[in-house]
Amino acid sequence: MPDGASGRSASILVLEDRDAVATLTLNRPAARNGLSIALLDALAAALRDIATDPAIRCVVLQAEGPVFCAGHDLKEITARFADPDGGHAFFADSMARCAAVMQAIPALPQPVIAAVQGLATAAGCQLAAACDLVIAAEEARFCTPGVEIGLFCSTPAVALSRAVPRKAAMEMLLTAEPIGAEEARRIGLVNRILPGAALRAETAALAARIAGRSALAVQLGKRCFNHQTGLPLPQAYEVAAAAMVENLLAEDAAEGIGAFLAKRAPEWRHR
C-alpha cells in the first residue's frame, strides 16, 4: 500500500490507506458486524498484507453502524447444529480462525488502534481488547455475555484478561453485565473517551501522530513490550535491554538523538 490515499471495498470489510495509516472497517452493520467465517478470513488476509507493507506504520480498526462488533455470527453457528457431527468440525475451525486473527493483531509490527463507537460484545470485546489502544465513543459499551446463553466467553477471556485486572475480567465474564466507556477506562480496557461525532477524526489524528514516528523504533518497542510483559522481572529486563541495544544501533536512533541535540525535526529513515 503506497503513501497517499487509496482503498478498496468489499461487502464485509472496507480497507483504506492514507499517509501511512491503514484503516480496516467492519462492514456488516445489518448483522451487527458479527464475525462470520468470511469476515474473519477477510481480516486475516488484510492483516497479513499490512504486516509486510513497510509503507503502513499504524492501523485503525473501526466499524459501520451502531454496533462495533457483536462477536461470532450466532446465526452461522446455529445452522451448524444440524451437521452430522453436531457442528464440531465447524466450531473448531471457527474458533481456530478467530484465535488466529486475535493473535495476528498483537503480532502485527504496526500498532493497532480500535475505534469503538457502540457495543463491543463477546468476541467483539475480544477484538477490541486485542488491539494496542482502544479509543471509545462516550456511548460505547463492552460486554462478555456468553453465560446468559449457556456459553461462557472463554476465548474472549484470553484477550480481556490480558487487558484488564483479573477480577475485573472475571466480573465481566460471570455477570455478563455491559460496562460503559468510563468504567472500561477505569479498569484499563479503554485509553480515551471521545464524543461519538469526533471518534473517527480524533482516532485518525492519533494514528497519524504514531505513524509520524520512526517505524523501526515503534515496531521494536511493540514487539519488546508484548514479549516482556509475560516474563519474570530479570528476564524482562534482559529482553528489554537487548531491544534497547538493537534500537540504539539503528540509523533512526542516531538521527533522532542528533536532531534532539541540534533542536531540529528528525528525518526518519525507518531503519
TrEMBL record:
Entry keyword set: Fatty acid metabolism, Lipid metabolism, Lyase, Transit peptide
Summary of the function given for this chain in its UniProt record: May play a role in fatty acid biosynthesis and insulin sensitivity.
Classification via CDD domains: crotonase-like
GO molecular function: enoyl-CoA hydratase activity
Organism lineage: Bacteria, Pseudomonadati, Pseudomonadota, Alphaproteobacteria, Acetobacterales
Name the UniProt record assigns to this protein: Enoyl-CoA hydratase domain-containing protein 3, mitochondrial
InterPro entries referenced in this protein's UniProt entry, alphabetically: ClpP/crotonase-like_dom_sf (IPR029045), Enoyl-CoA_hydra/iso (IPR001753), Enoyl-CoA_hydra_C (IPR014748), Mitochondrial_ECH-domain (IPR052377)
Short name of one Pfam family: ECH_1
Signal sequence region: none
Family from the record: Belongs to the enoyl-CoA hydratase/isomerase family.
